[in-house]
UniProtKB/TrEMBL annotation:
<protein>
    <recommendedName>
        <fullName>Immediate early response 3-interacting protein 1</fullName>
    </recommendedName>
</protein>
<keyword id="KW-0472">Membrane</keyword>
<keyword id="KW-1133">Transmembrane helix</keyword>
<comment type="function">
    <text>Regulator of endoplasmic reticulum secretion that acts as a key determinant of brain size. Required for secretion of extracellular matrix proteins. Required for correct brain development by depositing sufficient extracellular matrix proteins for tissue integrity and the proliferation of neural progenitors. Acts as a regulator of the unfolded protein response (UPR).</text>
</comment>
<dbReference type="Pfam" id="PF08571">
    <property type="entry name" value="Yos1"/>
</dbReference>
<dbReference type="GO" id="GO:0030134">
    <property type="term" value="C:COPII-coated ER to Golgi transport vesicle"/>
</dbReference>
<dbReference type="GO" id="GO:0000139">
    <property type="term" value="C:Golgi membrane"/>
</dbReference>
<keyword id="KW-0812">Transmembrane</keyword>
<feature type="signal peptide">
    <location>
        <begin position="1"/>
        <end position="18"/>
    </location>
</feature>
<keyword id="KW-0813">Transport</keyword>
<dbReference type="GO" id="GO:0006888">
    <property type="term" value="P:endoplasmic reticulum to Golgi vesicle-mediated transport"/>
</dbReference>
<dbReference type="GO" id="GO:0015031">
    <property type="term" value="P:protein transport"/>
</dbReference>
<dbReference type="InterPro" id="IPR013880">
    <property type="entry name" value="Yos1"/>
</dbReference>
<comment type="similarity">
    <text>Belongs to the YOS1 family.</text>
</comment>
<keyword id="KW-0732">Signal</keyword>
<dbReference type="GO" id="GO:0005789">
    <property type="term" value="C:endoplasmic reticulum membrane"/>
</dbReference>
<keyword id="KW-0653">Protein transport</keyword>
Length: 72
């Protein structure tokens, strides 16, 4: 099987879809990645966990926005 641009795009779309369907209360809170209310101090760099949760929330928000626009 050749590694083509199409297979790379397809893999990226599948990964974005996998992140978009993660449910925060059902799945992420069970592994300790639920809503994090702790806010770091001024100037503190957020940890990798906080950055990944922000990425997951951002992807879910963008994907939710795309679905709403396409149905209107």
């Amino acid at each position: 099987m050749a590694f083509t641009l199409y297979s790379l795009i397809q893999a990226a779309i599948l990964c974005v879809n996998a992140v978009a369907v993660l449910h925060e209360e059902r799945f992420l809170s069970k592994i300790g990645w639920g809503v994090d209310q702790s806010i770091g101090g001024f100037g503190d760099e957020p940890g990798i966990k906080v950055q990944l949760m922000n990425l997951i929330r951002s992807v879910r928000t963008v994907m939710r926005g795309e679905v709403k626009r396409s149905t209107v």
